[in-house]
Amino acid sequence: MIHNLGFPRFGAQRELKFALERYWRGELSQHELLAVGHELRLRHWQLQQDAGVALIPVGDFAYYDHMLNMSTLLGHIPARHRNEGGSYDLDCYFRMARGRAPTGTPAPACEMTKWFDTNYHYIVPELEADTTFAITDESLFNQVADAQQAGFHVKPVLVGPVTYLYLSKGEGDRLAWLDRLLPVYQQILQRLKTMGVEWVQIDEPALVMELDADWQAAYARAYEALSGQGVKLLLTTYFDDVLAHRELIEALPVEGVHIDVTRGDDQWEWLETFPQDKLLSVGGIDGRNIWKTDLNTLRGRLLKLHADRGENLWLAPSCSLLHVPLDLSLEDKLDPTIRQWMAFARQKLDELKLLHDSLKDAAVVDSEIWQTHARAVESRKTAALIHDPAVQERLKETKNLSVERQSPFAVRKQAQQAWMKLPLLPTTTIGSFPQTPEIRKARRDYRQGVLPEHDYVAAMQAEIAHVVKVQEELDIDVLVHGEPERNDMVEYFGEQLKGYTFTQHGWVQSYGSRMVKPPIIYGDVSRPAPMTVEWSKYAQSLTSRPMKGMLTGPITMLQWAFVRDDQPRSLTARQIALAIRDEVQDLEAAGIKVIQIDEPALREGLPLKKSRWAAYLDWAVHAFKLSANGVADDTQIHTHMCYAEFNDIIDAIEALDADVISIETSRSRMELLQAFVEHAYPNDIGPGVWDIHSPNVPETDEMIALLEKAIEVIPVERLWVNPDCGLKTRGWAEVKPALVNMVAAAKTLRARYDS
């Protein structure tokens, strides 16, 4: 049987994104927003059923985040976000995610961080001593009823209780809340039984982690409590292998288990001996990348399992298809040679159906559709356009190139301060400024050939001049050009590099209504020409203050793309690093002596198993240093990271040897800074004082309080003042007052600490 673990939420034309943003602006009623969600769910359920999916996932849809859905279902809602009187509604949900909704009192948003090793962000549950749980949000049950009424055979999706606690934050032992949590999960399962549900998908991706004895014991405890509730449980794991916990998984009292075999090739031997009393679901279609599946190889591995297990074997993608674009058929401008190698969410379900049919009937392998698919897979392996001899030669030539700065940080800082003459607590921003409708229209018109290049350049220069003028008026110390010419911090660069290609409609959710269109790395990467130099030179010509050149680092360029899988990721990262290195050196030669190379995805790329961290960090750090460190001592290198647990990579962050690192810390109230304190991080650091993912404008006193927390643990002479992230998603009405307050906070503390 075919089933699916989850489906993209936003629609082929990003309908949900635009509805959400209209609702938040007060242009759409809540009833109208809910109607958009209802229509999309019905449409997507039908698409899956038409593709042959026998069990349709329900509960994978979210207006912001599925982890947040689980929190509201469990009644795990911070008091600051509830309505007066303690009630719950959709605006409580949005206040948790954004800090603000059309109704209710604004309050600090919950923390947001990466979902395992993806670029999807989830809202982190907050565990406090008085936390209680009770079914609060009826959305899941309503959606199950809607799907059943429409005639779909449903499989509700829940985040499992152990993974829920594993991904939560709170002081002390998070497992202390398990006994409070399990009765509510039991109630949820019992209600689903009364609705006629047979199977419940219960996602436990934490099982791919290297768990200690307490967490392993928690699984046994949790599923002993959840068994016998009248529904069958499909324990679902993904993103890596679970071999370390095979005995635990086999012993759990669940009716079925889903295993992702795309990340753990050595699991096949185990699966051949998997207990026959449990249903086995195999995820062999990669839900994390956009390349066609080698169905011949996958079928060969499944034949024995199918012969041994029969109907006790289910087929599914490796994980939710949330992480890939919706439909390749919308892409009519891709190079046909490259396009034939790809499969998006709908096409992956087609692959799944084809694979399933081939196990039932061997004649399918001889069909034209199977053979066409197989020829496409084979053609990619030998295609000439993937390989660039010049890139391969440069890799050899630079194999032993030094990636160290000429002098230690203390020496470099003196050389940089000699010309920058920065005050105590210098202020800067992370890079982008608001992308207004006018900017987006000019870019779109230029790409479509409607706006001549001369007029496009003039429009971008006018916006750069405006941004520079605003920053000077605000008295910001180190300026940026605002990035009006950039659609996305990865896509913009990828469009100018060889080896990348792009989609028109390949949108993937990053967080909330934020969608990204990941580039596709199909071949060897190189930089044909400078990418940012002219824009940065123009911006620097408008001011005597230092102007930052803004680049995206090689690991983020890798992580936030769909990456070729025919060579090690480390090799692709090195190719990108050499391209970025060329840009860094061209910027320096053009007089841009402050260069920021953003690496928000460095932590995200960390393998899920700690035993594999060292190898990854070795090549990831090397790639950053290769890109950044071929500059003079008086050129200041910045980097930026956000929404990550820095404790895991603090040694690697120090090894980057950036002169200044800016980090996101406002949502955690500077808690994330603690990793830098405990490690005695030696270089300059800019802990963010403004949560730019919330529309709330922080007051000066709030920023001062955050900076005072930082000053308690980091020498004031090594601190910078900046927002958490870039400002492209905020409006000028929020940006100007927030930056006014930020500069005022810095000046207040300068007066206090400058002796």
UniProtKB/TrEMBL annotation:
Catalytic residues of the enzyme: H693 (proton donor)
Example of a GO MF term: zinc ion binding
Enzyme class (EC, first level): transferase
Pathway connected to this protein: Amino-acid biosynthesis; L-methionine biosynthesis via de novo pathway; L-methionine from L-homocysteine (MetE route): step 1/1
Cofactor: Zn(2+)
Domain Cobalamin-independent methionine synthase MetE C-terminal/archaeal: 425-747
Keyword Metal-binding applies: yes
Cofactor note: Binds 2 Zn(2+) ions per subunit.
Reaction catalysis annotation: 5-methyltetrahydropteroyltri-L-glutamate + L-homocysteine = tetrahydropteroyltri-L-glutamate + L-methionine
InterPro entries named among the record's database cross-references: Cbl-indep_Met_Synth_N, Cobalamin-indep_Met_synthase, Met_Synth_C/arc, UROD/MetE-like_sf
Binding site for L-methionine: I430, G431, S432, E483, D598
Keywords for the protein's UniProt record, in alphabetical order: Amino-acid biosynthesis, Metal-binding, Methionine biosynthesis, Methyltransferase, Repeat, Transferase, Zinc
Residue intervals of the Cobalamin-independent methionine synthase MetE N-terminal domain: 3-305
Keyword Zinc: yes
EC number: 2.1.1.14
Protein family (similarity comment): Belongs to the vitamin-B12 independent methionine synthase family.
HAMAP family, A to Z: Meth_synth
Function according to Swiss-Prot or TrEMBL: Catalyzes the transfer of a methyl group from 5-methyltetrahydrofolate to homocysteine resulting in methionine formation.
Protein name (database record): 5-methyltetrahydropteroyltriglutamate--homocysteine methyltransferase
Organism: Sulfurivirga caldicuralii
